[in-house]
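cache lookup: miss for this entity combination. No prior model stored, computing from scratch. Input as submitted by user K.M.:
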Amino acid sequence: MAEKDSKDTSRRSFLHDGLWGISMAALGSLAGFAFSRTAKEKTVWQIDPYKCTCCGKCTTECVLALSAVKCVHVYAMCGYCELCTGYFDPDPHELDTGAENQLCPTGAIIRTFIEDPYYSYAIDEDLCNGCGKCVKGCNAFGNGSLFLQIRHNLCVNCNKCAIAAACPSQAIKKVPADEPYILKQVG
Amino acid sequence: MAEINNNKPRNKQSLYQTAVGIAVVGGLFSVLIIAVLGLRYFRYSYILPMQENRLAQIKTELASGAEDEALLEQFRELDFESRKIRIQWYDFTSMAGYPLLFNLAILLIGAKLAKSLQNDKPMPVPGIKYSQFYVYTDSMSRRAVMTAFVLVGGMTIVIAMLSPEINYFAIEEDEETDTAVAAVPGLPSREEIAENWPRFRGPGGLGVSQYTDIPHKWDIETGKNILWKSPIPLEGRNSPIVWQDRVFLTGATETQKQVYCYDAASGELLWQADVPDKDVAGSELDLYPDTGYAASTAYTDGYQVYAFFPTGDVAAFDYDGNRQWVVNLGQPDNIYGHATSVVGYEDKIIIQYDNGLHDDDLSWLIALDWQSGETVWRTPRAVTNSWTTPIIIETQQGNQLITVSEPYLTAYNPDDGLEIWRTDRMSGEIAPSPIYDNGLVMVISPYVEMAAVEPGGDEMIDESYFKWTADRGIPDIASPVSDGQRVYLLSTYGGALAVHSIQDGNLIWQDQLGGEFHASPSIVGDKVYLFSIEGVGYVLEAADEFVKLAENPLGQEVHASPAFVEGRMYIRGEEHLFCIGYSE
């Protein structure tokens, strides 16, 4: 028995087994690295704000009851106007927060007075249904600081996005998952 | 006499009653959830659209200046109620699915348990015909299976409806809406018109885009910002018009007249339709080559497209390319061939049909019914043949239809065609169409002057209505365009550009682009877009000095003015229709 133990732990067998293990580990690492390089890049759906025509289909075509498309706001582009054409109806009765003056059908834009004559506008995403009416208004007469984006905390990332299929301007495309938003740039 | 022994042990009886109780509770909660879901769905699908219609009505009333506190209050209450309905629907559909599944599972488990506890083997009973008994139980089994299928099918539908992730109703609702719109068409709203490019030079005919997200650089060689280009079957110098996802053009030769509908997203030619000669053969016309057989831009109201040709034929097609009507306005007599474009006003299609000389009694302003093509009104005009397109303006005295021909600038009531006012200051062969900005109608007498006129008065207006005149860089074909501060004039030859102040008509600057121009300039935000016949698209700064931002060759001739919609510009080249937009 003692003789057998001595044989099992000989220097030769230790080196043999060690080299074998290192070779297998290196081979495995190489295979893993090769696999990771050939694996398909993970992508998500996103709206190109420069192609979007705010047709309203994002509201009706998304498979979610309340669309995953939301209006987002680049504050650096916003003019903080008193008469915000993204907030107010084209022909507002008064420039106040009365429902009859608001463009948004769900009241998802929060208007806050800053200092005369400036107001800030924020989006309540729980209410926004992605109809894009505010975006149209902002693009028409404002700086274009409001635009639509698919929110990835809500999107179920369907294999074939229902909105992308219905989009008349083909504004929805796959983008890398590590850069999931297409944001408008200032300037 | 022996009896079936259905007596259960006491503990089994107790378990059976508990199972039944569980099933009943599960069932009751399931029914309750389904009932609330049905109610919410009814409110969301049927009540909400009605409320939204009423909200739109009240908004229109308020916009028209109605100062009614009660109306305002009604709007706010209705708005609050409609928002509540919408939010309740979203919240309930996202929350109710799992509780319903849970309760249905409880119902099934309870029922199954109760059934298994009840399922004691009966003892034989003397006097019962077992053959009949088995026929009866077999029949009941079949019914039970059928009922189970119906229940499972129904529950599947309900669960699908309830799923927090999936909204199966969206597409159905859309289809219903589309069908309803197509069946009972109405007039396009001011907002709808403003969102599209339904006529020559867009909403109002002013050549001003309400959208600013249009590329000012594109490259035909690399394809940068060229979203697509599609061949045009027949030639024509008319401009594209756009309504939502469709782009319309016309084309014609001596022997053939056609209307084209393109898919705005892909450029696919969806349909092309022939326009028959109604009365006058096209081959009888001797047209000037620069005008051609399809110089008039079509008009669309979102339901139909209306095309006018130099033969005097007017045709209407629905959005599937089905011809609705064709009428002929009478023998044309126009030295270069008609080029006036179709204009729409409410339910009327209006054409300025100027022929012959001013004393020939051949010129008419004609309004046709959009559905039948029948004449609604027809007003004679003592003017010489012209190539201008009318505009319809809103004034404090009401809407006015402004026409320009030699020798009159005339305003009509578009409702009945009756003349409101006129001035006989116009001269020459007039092709530039009028524009309206800052409360002034600006008109061109080629090579002579641009006049800014306040639209008012009645009958023949005097000099007091002329705010200013300008005589530098006056064009002969292209229409002017205003950015609110400056009026841009583009001459045909040499691309001479003269910019005047809209306040007093003084010349601000002038310069030359080179080349020849037929297409009218357009304003896109703070930029001016101009297209030469050679096909070069120039983009300048709309400013108090000449600043050229870009020069974009298109590779083929351009004679027509472009159309602008959100994010896109459509240009008719000699052979292709181009769609320009941000490609990346």
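stored under new cache key. The two ends of chain A are 83 Å apart (CA to CA).
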